[in-house]
UniProtKB/TrEMBL annotation:
It comes from Glossina brevipalpis. Residues 23-131 form the Ig-like domain. This is Ig-like domain-containing protein.
Length: 252
Protein backbone atom coordinates (compact mmCIF):
# COMPACT_ATOMS: atom_id res chain seq x y z
CA UNK A 1 0.00 0.00 0.00
CA UNK A 2 1.32 3.41 -0.91
CA UNK A 3 -1.09 6.26 -0.35
CA UNK A 4 -0.32 9.85 -1.21
CA UNK A 5 -2.36 12.92 -0.39
CA UNK A 6 -1.71 16.49 -1.39
CA UNK A 7 -3.45 19.63 -0.30
CA UNK A 8 -2.65 23.30 -0.81
CA UNK A 9 -3.22 26.36 1.28
CA UNK A 10 -2.91 29.50 -0.83
CA UNK A 11 -1.14 29.16 -4.15
CA UNK A 12 2.36 27.90 -3.29
CA UNK A 13 3.43 24.31 -3.76
CA UNK A 14 6.43 24.09 -1.43
CA UNK A 15 6.74 20.36 -0.62
CA UNK A 16 7.70 17.43 -2.83
CA UNK A 17 7.16 14.27 -0.77
CA UNK A 18 8.96 11.55 -2.70
CA UNK A 19 8.67 8.48 -0.50
CA UNK A 20 8.63 7.12 3.03
CA UNK A 21 10.80 4.27 4.22
CA UNK A 22 8.69 1.80 6.21
CA UNK A 23 9.59 -1.91 6.03
CA UNK A 24 6.83 -4.10 4.65
CA UNK A 25 7.43 -6.89 7.17
CA UNK A 26 9.38 -7.44 10.38
CA UNK A 27 9.72 -10.95 11.83
CA UNK A 28 10.20 -11.32 15.59
CA UNK A 29 11.99 -14.45 16.75
CA UNK A 30 13.60 -15.47 13.46
CA UNK A 31 17.22 -14.99 14.61
CA UNK A 32 17.64 -11.84 12.52
CA UNK A 33 19.20 -9.18 14.74
CA UNK A 34 18.56 -6.52 12.09
CA UNK A 35 14.88 -6.68 13.06
CA UNK A 36 15.66 -5.52 16.61
CA UNK A 37 15.34 -1.93 15.37
CA UNK A 38 13.00 -0.52 12.74
CA UNK A 39 14.06 2.63 10.90
CA UNK A 40 11.43 4.98 9.48
CA UNK A 41 12.31 7.84 7.15
CA UNK A 42 10.40 10.50 5.25
CA UNK A 43 12.01 11.69 2.00
CA UNK A 44 10.88 15.14 0.90
CA UNK A 45 12.17 18.31 -0.71
CA UNK A 46 11.20 21.92 -0.08
CA UNK A 47 11.02 24.19 -3.10
CA UNK A 48 11.47 27.27 -0.94
CA UNK A 49 12.59 27.99 2.61
CA UNK A 50 9.38 28.12 4.65
CA UNK A 51 9.14 30.04 7.89
CA UNK A 52 7.34 27.10 9.49
CA UNK A 53 8.09 23.38 9.07
CA UNK A 54 6.70 20.43 11.02
CA UNK A 55 7.07 16.68 10.46
CA UNK A 56 4.65 14.31 12.16
CA UNK A 57 4.53 10.52 12.25
CA UNK A 58 1.25 8.70 12.84
CA UNK A 59 0.44 5.09 13.59
CA UNK A 60 -3.11 4.09 12.65
CA UNK A 61 -3.96 7.82 12.46
CA UNK A 62 -2.68 8.50 16.00
CA UNK A 63 0.22 10.96 16.33
CA UNK A 64 3.30 9.26 17.79
CA UNK A 65 6.10 11.72 16.92
CA UNK A 66 6.45 15.40 16.05
CA UNK A 67 9.35 17.59 15.04
CA UNK A 68 9.02 21.34 14.61
CA UNK A 69 12.07 22.86 12.94
CA UNK A 70 14.14 24.70 15.49
CA UNK A 71 12.89 22.55 18.37
CA UNK A 72 13.67 19.11 19.76
CA UNK A 73 11.41 16.27 18.58
CA UNK A 74 8.74 14.92 20.91
CA UNK A 75 7.24 11.44 21.30
CA UNK A 76 3.79 10.86 22.76
CA UNK A 77 3.97 9.17 26.19
CA UNK A 78 2.17 5.94 25.25
CA UNK A 79 4.72 5.27 22.48
CA UNK A 80 7.99 6.14 24.25
CA UNK A 81 8.92 2.53 25.02
CA UNK A 82 9.04 1.85 21.28
CA UNK A 83 11.17 4.83 20.18
CA UNK A 84 14.94 4.66 20.41
CA UNK A 85 17.38 7.46 21.05
CA UNK A 86 16.43 10.52 19.02
CA UNK A 87 19.23 11.07 16.51
CA UNK A 88 19.69 13.37 13.57
CA UNK A 89 18.52 11.99 10.25
CA UNK A 90 20.40 14.74 8.41
CA UNK A 91 22.64 17.70 9.17
CA UNK A 92 20.51 19.81 6.83
CA UNK A 93 18.26 22.02 9.02
CA UNK A 94 15.09 21.25 7.04
CA UNK A 95 15.62 17.49 7.41
CA UNK A 96 17.36 17.21 10.77
CA UNK A 97 14.83 15.02 12.64
CA UNK A 98 12.52 13.84 9.88
CA UNK A 99 12.90 10.12 10.70
CA UNK A 100 12.77 7.95 13.80
CA UNK A 101 13.89 4.54 15.02
CA UNK A 102 11.52 2.04 16.60
CA UNK A 103 12.83 -0.41 19.20
CA UNK A 104 11.44 -3.32 21.23
CA UNK A 105 9.48 -4.80 18.30
CA UNK A 106 6.16 -6.35 19.28
CA UNK A 107 2.79 -6.96 17.68
CA UNK A 108 1.68 -3.57 19.03
CA UNK A 109 3.79 -2.00 16.25
CA UNK A 110 1.74 -3.68 13.52
CA UNK A 111 -0.16 -0.97 11.66
CA UNK A 112 -0.22 1.82 9.09
CA UNK A 113 2.45 4.49 9.47
CA UNK A 114 2.01 7.95 7.99
CA UNK A 115 4.49 10.78 7.56
CA UNK A 116 2.94 14.25 7.34
CA UNK A 117 5.04 17.25 6.26
CA UNK A 118 3.58 20.72 6.75
CA UNK A 119 4.62 24.28 6.02
CA UNK A 120 2.64 27.49 6.21
CA UNK A 121 1.64 27.01 2.55
CA UNK A 122 1.48 23.28 1.95
CA UNK A 123 0.80 19.90 3.53
CA UNK A 124 1.51 16.43 2.15
CA UNK A 125 1.58 12.90 3.50
CA UNK A 126 2.34 9.33 2.54
CA UNK A 127 1.56 6.13 4.43
CA UNK A 128 2.70 2.50 4.38
CA UNK A 129 1.69 -0.67 6.22
CA UNK A 130 4.17 -2.29 8.60
CA UNK A 131 3.37 -5.98 9.11
CA UNK A 132 4.67 -7.74 12.22
CA UNK A 133 5.11 -11.53 12.28
CA UNK A 134 5.83 -12.94 15.74
CA UNK A 135 7.19 -16.50 15.89
CA UNK A 136 9.28 -15.93 19.02
CA UNK A 137 7.25 -18.24 21.28
CA UNK A 138 5.13 -20.30 18.93
CA UNK A 139 4.79 -24.08 18.80
CA UNK A 140 3.51 -26.38 16.09
CA UNK A 141 2.24 -29.97 16.13
CA UNK A 142 1.61 -32.18 13.12
CA UNK A 143 0.04 -35.60 13.68
CA UNK A 144 -1.13 -38.26 11.28
CA UNK A 145 -2.97 -41.50 11.88
CA UNK A 146 -3.48 -44.46 9.54
CA UNK A 147 -7.11 -45.63 9.26
CA UNK A 148 -7.34 -48.50 6.74
CA UNK A 149 -6.48 -46.96 3.35
CA UNK A 150 -6.64 -43.36 4.56
CA UNK A 151 -4.29 -41.08 6.46
CA UNK A 152 -5.87 -38.56 8.82
CA UNK A 153 -3.81 -35.39 9.30
CA UNK A 154 -4.08 -32.79 12.05
CA UNK A 155 -1.92 -29.67 12.25
CA UNK A 156 -2.07 -27.12 15.05
CA UNK A 157 -0.10 -23.98 15.81
CA UNK A 158 -0.05 -22.11 19.12
CA UNK A 159 0.77 -18.53 20.12
CA UNK A 160 1.58 -17.06 16.71
CA UNK A 161 0.90 -13.70 15.05
CA UNK A 162 -0.75 -12.66 12.77
CA UNK A 163 -3.68 -15.00 12.20
CA UNK A 164 -2.30 -18.09 10.42
CA UNK A 165 -3.73 -19.95 7.45
CA UNK A 166 -3.21 -23.73 7.56
CA UNK A 167 -3.16 -25.91 4.44
CA UNK A 168 -1.89 -29.37 3.50
CA UNK A 169 0.12 -30.88 0.65
CA UNK A 170 1.24 -34.42 -0.22
CA UNK A 171 3.91 -35.74 -2.53
CA UNK A 172 1.83 -38.21 -4.53
CA UNK A 173 -1.29 -39.03 -2.52
CA UNK A 174 -4.77 -37.66 -3.10
CA UNK A 175 -6.14 -35.12 -0.63
CA UNK A 176 -9.82 -36.03 -0.41
CA UNK A 177 -11.10 -33.85 2.42
CA UNK A 178 -10.06 -30.86 4.54
CA UNK A 179 -11.86 -29.89 7.73
CA UNK A 180 -12.48 -26.17 8.33
CA UNK A 181 -9.80 -24.38 10.29
CA UNK A 182 -10.65 -23.43 13.87
CA UNK A 183 -8.89 -20.24 15.03
CA UNK A 184 -8.83 -18.69 18.50
CA UNK A 185 -7.51 -15.24 19.39
CA UNK A 186 -5.64 -15.29 22.69
CA UNK A 187 -5.64 -12.65 25.41
CA UNK A 188 -2.12 -11.57 24.37
CA UNK A 189 -3.30 -10.81 20.82
CA UNK A 190 -1.71 -13.92 19.31
CA UNK A 191 -3.54 -16.86 17.75
CA UNK A 192 -4.07 -20.60 18.12
CA UNK A 193 -5.29 -22.53 15.09
CA UNK A 194 -6.00 -26.15 14.19
CA UNK A 195 -7.04 -27.85 10.95
CA UNK A 196 -7.31 -31.37 9.59
CA UNK A 197 -7.36 -33.32 6.35
CA UNK A 198 -7.88 -36.84 5.04
CA UNK A 199 -5.58 -38.35 2.41
CA UNK A 200 -6.36 -41.37 0.21
CA UNK A 201 -3.41 -43.79 0.18
CA UNK A 202 -2.87 -45.05 -3.35
CA UNK A 203 0.16 -47.29 -2.69
CA UNK A 204 2.41 -48.61 0.08
CA UNK A 205 5.42 -46.44 -0.76
CA UNK A 206 6.93 -43.94 1.65
CA UNK A 207 4.68 -40.90 1.86
CA UNK A 208 5.42 -37.28 2.63
CA UNK A 209 2.80 -34.96 4.10
CA UNK A 210 3.24 -31.22 4.51
CA UNK A 211 1.51 -28.74 6.80
CA UNK A 212 1.82 -25.18 5.50
CA UNK A 213 1.43 -22.15 7.77
CA UNK A 214 0.91 -18.94 5.82
CA UNK A 215 -0.06 -15.37 6.62
CA UNK A 216 -2.41 -13.50 4.33
CA UNK A 217 -0.45 -11.39 1.83
CA UNK A 218 2.93 -11.82 3.53
CA UNK A 219 6.06 -13.46 2.05
CA UNK A 220 6.70 -15.71 5.05
CA UNK A 221 5.76 -19.39 5.33
CA UNK A 222 6.34 -22.13 7.89
CA UNK A 223 6.35 -25.69 6.54
CA UNK A 224 6.32 -28.92 8.54
CA UNK A 225 7.09 -32.21 6.78
CA UNK A 226 6.00 -35.62 7.99
CA UNK A 227 7.50 -38.69 6.29
CA UNK A 228 6.04 -42.13 6.94
CA UNK A 229 8.32 -45.16 6.81
CA UNK A 230 7.22 -47.52 4.06
CA UNK A 231 8.00 -50.67 6.03
CA UNK A 232 5.97 -49.42 9.03
CA UNK A 233 2.61 -49.01 7.35
CA UNK A 234 0.08 -51.20 9.11
CA UNK A 235 -3.36 -51.28 7.58
CA UNK A 236 -5.25 -51.87 10.80
CA UNK A 237 -8.33 -50.09 12.01
CA UNK A 238 -6.30 -47.50 13.91
CA UNK A 239 -2.52 -47.23 14.11
CA UNK A 240 0.03 -44.47 14.55
CA UNK A 241 2.54 -44.22 11.70
CA UNK A 242 6.20 -43.61 12.65
CA UNK A 243 7.29 -40.27 11.28
CA UNK A 244 10.20 -37.96 10.61
CA UNK A 245 9.37 -34.33 11.37
CA UNK A 246 11.16 -31.38 9.78
CA UNK A 247 10.42 -27.69 10.19
CA UNK A 248 11.38 -25.00 7.71
CA UNK A 249 10.64 -21.30 7.46
CA UNK A 250 10.59 -19.63 4.08
CA UNK A 251 10.82 -15.95 3.22
CA UNK A 252 10.45 -14.96 -0.43
Amino acid sequence: MNVKNECMHGFAYSISLHDIDVPHMVVIGDDDESDDVISLDCEYELEDNPTYLVVKWFMNNNVIYQWIRGQKPSVVPFFRDHVGEIAETSTEPNHQYRGLTLINPSIELDGVYKCLVQTENDSKFREEKLNIVDVSNFSIHFDHVQVQNETHLECSVHNIYPEPIISFDTDDEELINETPQNTTKLDNGHFDAIAGAVVQNIDEDEDKFICNIKFNGLPYNINVDVVSAADSLIFSKLSIIPLILTLSRIMF
